[in-house]
Amino acid sequence: MALQKSSHNFTKIALKHLRTNLFHIVLSAFFLTIGFTKVSAQELQNKTLKVEAQKPVDSLIINSEDFFQIKDTVINDSLELNKKKPLLEDKIKYKADKYTKNDQKNKLITLYDKAELYYQDIELKAGIIIMNYEKNEVYAGRIKDSSGVYTQNPVFKQGSNVVEPDSIRFNFKTQKALIWNSRTEQGEFRVKAEISKKENDSVYFLKGARFTTSKDIDNPEYYFYTDKIKLVPRKKVVTGFTNMVIANVPTPIAIPFAFFPMTEESSSGLIIPTFQDTRRQGYSLQNGGYYLALSDYYDLAILGDYYTNGSWGLRFQSSYALKYRFNGSFNLRFENIIQSERGFPDYSKSKNYNIQWSHTQDAKSNPNSRFSASVNLGSSQYFQQSLNQINVGSNLVNNLSSSVSYSKTFNTVPQVNMSLSATHNQNTGTEEINMTLPTLQASVDRIFPFASKEGTKKGLIKNINLQYNLRGEYRINTYDSLFFKQEMFKEAKTGMQHTIPLSTNFKIFKHFSVSANANYNEVWTLKTINKAFDEELNKVVTNEVSGFDSFRTYSFGSNLGTTIYGTFNFGEANKIQAIRHVMRPSVSYSYTPSFEKYFDTYAIDASGKMDDYTRFEGGIFGEPSNTYSNFAGISLGNTFEAKVTEKDSTKTEPKKVMLLNQLNFSTSYNLASDSLQWAPVRMSGGTLLFNNKMNVNFAATLDPYAINAAGRRIEKFNIDNGGSLFRMTSANMTANYSFSSQGKKDIKKKNVQGAKNGGRDDDLFGTNTDLSDRRESQFDDSDEEEEEFSEFYNSKAPWDFTLAYSLTYSNTNRESIISGNSVMFSGNIDISPRWKVGVSSGYDFVQKGVTFTQFRFERDLLSWRMDFNWSPYGANAYWGFYIGIKSSVLSDLKYDKRSIPDRTLR
After folding, report:
1. Can you name the residues that pair with 94 across neighbouring β-strands?
2. What is the dihedral of CA 701, 707, 713, 719, to 10 degrees?
3. Of all helices (H) and strands (E), which one includes residue 495?
4. Nearest to 333 by CA among 348, 310, 351
5. pLDDT above 80 for 24
6. Residues 177, 157: contact at Cβ < 8 Å?
7. Partner residues linked to 197 by β-bridges
8. Residue 139's beta-bridge partner residues?
9. Are strands 155-158 and 122-132 parallel, antiparallel or unpaired?
10. Nearest to 269, CA basis, from 895, 889, 864, 773
11. Which of 283, 287, 509, 655 has the lowest CB atom count within 10 Å?
12. Do the beta carbons of residue 662 and residue 581 sit within 8 Å?
């Protein structure tokens, strides 16, 4: 007989849970087998087992037959209270390259070389991993390679948090950890700490920590060092005394404590302003305000400027997007500008505003309807007078335009298209504004009334087709000073136009194409005029007549054309083997009758002299004519192409080179006129040179008639007046040349802000400078790839060059002058791996002066960016210097200094 305590095998068997996990099943079976073997070896059928009670007063004697009964009845409740939790609460997966060791006695799992362990939400990779599943702890560290260098640093991932330390000790149950030389990323921050303590899922304490936005956390170009950090992942970072270190050299820049919000979602917050010293407005705080992260789909930034002389500015900037549906941005700017001080002779005050809205719809969101917007309107002098302009070259803009449109297609038979749009065009020089609010357009697709539903449409009759087009407008013509005022609507005009074009085409003699057309036009209007001579005022008075009125016109036309091919062969032995000439001559005819019924007469003076006028004069869709039109037109189009022997002897086919991709001549003869029937000949052409890098276009106007001493055309040919066959009255030529160090690769430049403000989309007028956010490069880095440079000097210095030349000749009245002659150029070069230099300038040979000039310098400091922008000449002289961190989370750490160009107020 043997005595056993309650802590022996029987008690252990009663407390052990069976698991479905293979590991626990095997482990449980092992202990169960050992336990029952011991019981059967002790012959207890006739023996008793004395179990010592906790109190010495009683004792309990049981045998093996009563074990399960006791478990179910006597000790069930008390044992359930003392049950231990399982050693492992979840499945564990692990692997390693060299070996894995499972020590069941000490409850240890050891993994060596490229070890990986996955347990609950923990992913751990390291050189060596040791897991104690009894204590719920894991240790991970590096290992040495054959040369004695530590490799395979641990990578600890829990949820979305990733830590890359030298070694780590982690408790699964308490979620606490000790980490040595941890490296982690929180948003745009990269943090490295000597010792890190993880309290729970949401709090870390770091000692001897550095944090930076540099990509290389082990050797950053700058960092902030602090002894104490409290880190709440994806929420905030709170530090003690913090010192800024640049190139491992501590700087005097330090703060007693710091707080950084750390969130993966957009959050609202203050925007720190920039201090500037202007020349005429005093000191200023610019581009300060508040950012509102209103939702995941749209935001709002409220920015303001304040100047000590009383000037101020206010801007609202918003961006919005809905994936697979649409995206856009909206900017509203207002400035109250004061020059000098009240009481001084040069004191002036003006108010300027600018509205920009861009909206783009995803074409796949709704194929049958589309809404788009491109708005740029405001004060004509905004970019010339603005104290916080977006682009230093924007004051060269002389035209602002806008368009907001909605279109829909109805998939009927025939198809119907409808659109509603509002347009705006503004000349900043004359301050004249033209708007349509709105324009309605509708059209019915072509109908072939004589063609069968199936089969080809060939021949004169089957090809007859017609359409229906509708256009209605509410047009406003006003000036900047009257914009948004009641007066701008007084001169508004309304009209609607209906057109029905009827056409057909066919071939004659196999090689000639003939087309014929007839057009019906009907115009509705709500305003007409009445002219009469007022004897009291002694002048002609024009009165507006309100009410519906309409007129109808029609016209006819036809065209005959063909294509002629010719080849001049010079032999394969010559460099130029052949030249191909393609001619496209055509003859056209148009006829419009007289519509005298829409004309009335009025007295032009007191003598009773009469003149004709139409009450539809000045209509937005034109007016009927009281003279018939009868014109015959002639045109000739040419293209010239050469076959050139290839330099590469392995190629058997000659190379095709375009000599002239167009050379066109056109004129017309007025059959209804009794004099000066021939119209001037218009010539135009163009070609591409230097591997299609240079685009050359030219045009000229050639008049066959002579002029008199007063400069008027006379009924006499110029050749009969002692001159040449044609008299050149005007001519122009433009050439654009772009090339780069990448050879045939196209140069892609982006000037989004310049184009948005109504300017050019290249850098011939300088690049853009967004003064509210200077972190973006002023050079085009869209295609730039990150490269590692191991040399001090890079033999590859990327560069690009753009050249534009324009020449205009005028000889309308025998003045024979060059009215325009200018050249503009821009170039950019990387003089070293991270140094960029650019220049934009030009020269006007007529005005004898330098055009708008800009010099650009930029230094890429990895996490930082430094640039200098200088426009040295003219009224727009300007310079600006900036150095700051690229990351948005530290965008307020910057130095931004610039001059403000002089402004001329009107």
Report:
1. 117
2. -70
3. strand 493-508
4. 351
5. no
6. no
7. 178, 205
8. 130, 169
9. antiparallel
10. 889
11. 509
12. no
Q: What is the DSSP letter of 563?
A: -
What is the mean predicted confidence (pLDDT) over 448-453?
84
CA distance 334 to 355: 9
Contact 267, 259 (CB under 8 A): no
Give whole-number Cα distances, 243 to 187, 213, 251, in Å.
21, 15, 7
178-182, 446-450, 724-728, 787-791, range with the lowest pLDDT: 787-791
CA angle at 774 for the pair 334 and 290, rounded to the nearest 5°: 50
Residue 371 token pair: 């809404």
Contact 420, 397 (CB under 8 A): no
* Tokens 């052990």, residue located: 16
Angstrom distance (rounded) from CA 770 to CA 897: 14
According to the per-residue pLDDT averaged within each range, which of 618-622, 735-739, 806-810, 834-838 is highest? 806-810
CA distances from 505 to 446, 592, 838 (A): 14, 20, 55
Q: Report d(CA 496, CA 440) in Å as an integer.
A: 9
How many CB atoms are located within 10 Å of the residue 279 CB?
Answer: 9
Structural contact between residues 637 and 664, judged by C-beta atoms closer than 8 angstroms: yes
Nearest CA to 172 among 89, 231, 83? 89
| Predicted pLDDT at 753 | 53
- What residues does 182 pair with on adjacent strands? 193
Reading the block at residue 729, the tokens are 């009255």
Structure tokens at 575: 């460099």
Span 674-700, mean pLDDT? 91
- Secondary structure element (H or E) that encloses residue 642, with its range: strand 629-644
CA 638 to centroid of chain Cα atoms: 40
Residues 6+ apart with CB under 8 A from 231: 186, 191, 203, 204, 205, 206, 237, 238, 262
What are residue 276's DSSP bridge partners?
A: 284
- Dist. CA 296–CA 732, nearest whole Å: 53
* Predicted pLDDT of residue 283: 86
Residue 696 · residue 661 · CB < 8 Å: no
- Inter-residue contact 530 to 601 (CB < 8 Å): no
Long-range contacts of 679-686 (CB under 8 A, 24+ apart): 680/704, 680/729, 681/726, 685/660, 686/660, 686/661, 686/662
**Distance (Å, rounded) from C-alpha 193 to C-alpha 177?**
14
Cα(898)–Cα(392) distance, integer angstroms: 12
**Are the CB atoms for 376 and 358 separated by under 8 Å?**
no
pLDDT band at 66 (very low <50, low <70, confident <90, very high): very low
* Mean pLDDT for the stretch of residues 303-326: 91
Query: Residue 458: how many CB atoms within 10 A of its CB?
Result: 12
**How many CA atoms lie within 13 Å of 175's alpha carbon, on the beta-carbon side?**
11
Measure the CA–CA gap between 768 and 721, rounded to whole angstroms: 55
What is the C-alpha separation between 588 and 631, in angstroms, rounded?
8
pTM, two decimals, is 0.67
**How far apart (Å, rounded) are the C-alpha atoms in residues 404 and 420?**
8
Token pair of 310 as six digits: 């009383």
Distance of alpha carbon 366 from alpha carbon 405, whole angstroms: 15
Q: Identify the CA nearest to 191 among candidates 165, 209, 215, 169.
A: 209
Asked if residues 416 and 392 have their Cβ atoms less than 8 Å apart, the reply is: no
Amino acid letter, residue 841: S
Kindly state the helix (H) or strand (E) to which residue 383 belongs, with its residue range. helix 382-385
The pLDDT > 90 percentage for the chain reads 33
Strand partners, 731: 700, 809
Range list of H helices, 637-790:
752-756
Instruction: Find out whether the peptide bond into 250 is cis, omega within 30 degrees of 0.
Output: no
